[in-house]
Fold this protein.
Amino acid sequence: MKKLLSILLALALLLGCTAAFSEEAAASKVSLGTLSINGAFTLKCGIPEGYTPQPILANSDHVIASLDSEDPEKPIMVLSVAFDETYADVQRMNDLDDESLVQLENTYLENDPDVNITYGETGLGTLLMVVVQDQTEPNYVDFLSIYKGYFVEFVLTASPEASTKSLTQEQMKTAVDFLTDLDFVEADEAAVMAQAEANSARYTALIRNCDADTLTMTATLKTPLVLSEQYVKEALEMKSIDLDEEDIPIATAETEETGSVLINETYSLIPEEDGYHAIYAESGLGVLQILLEDAPLAVSADAVFTDYINPETLETLDEPTQHTLAEFAAMLAAEGTTEVGPGFAMDNVIITCDEKGVVTAIERVGTPWQ
């Protein structure tokens, strides 16, 4: 046990370090995600031999990734870096008093009273909590530290298929090497924006109302209709399929060389990796399904409305106009009560929601039927 702890306490986590590092060193590392709360950082790490990184979650305040190996004798490693507003002013775990440390200890002891909790310092003097479970199987070790309000937690546990559930010193050394190589790299605006875009979602929306003062709106959200291969097979056998939010009798069904299925000469089912995408055969536009109906949505105060339509002529603009949220709310209210403009409830609006589901952008485009 003492030998195990001596290895753990020799960890040199780069959690209290400056974000500066050589470009050559960074080039060989893998990016796990970009955090943008209480500072902007991209997590970069080296990958142990025989392991493959598997991103689980990556958004502005939480990154989770596992390191998996096809070798059942190699342990599973999971890294979690999560922002906690309660600890926003904590630069390092060293800043916590004894009472605060005991509170953290209790979060482990409440779940597993058999764990052994010790403390050590990293190579740069950052206080490190080490939680070891070697009394029951499978064994695990949980390393915990804090950097700028982010809890950095790394869990090492034996694989379910391993011949022994006890962790070896060699496996511990692999964990030490990984953590030593972990960098918090200052992220530029482009990295933050790319991360935000990766975690955003776009929906066709029927917007009912919008309040710029309370930053809320009510809208029905629609997404492209994608049908599973099994459902399409059963629908063709039953000669009935759910399209346009109603059951449609199948009078004719023609399967083309590409694998597409033409239903009633009206709908075309296009095979893709995630299933059959339903489109209208004549226009090529996608068939939509309701995701949320008349749902309350939060709206960012910085949300921008981009209008690609001239409300008076209904023509598509060469240069779209941009409006503030307050201006959009006023236009929505006016066009809902007058004949001016195409309105905002004709599947001609697209909204973008961030990782928290908050509306960050609104667009109105031209449609064949307006």
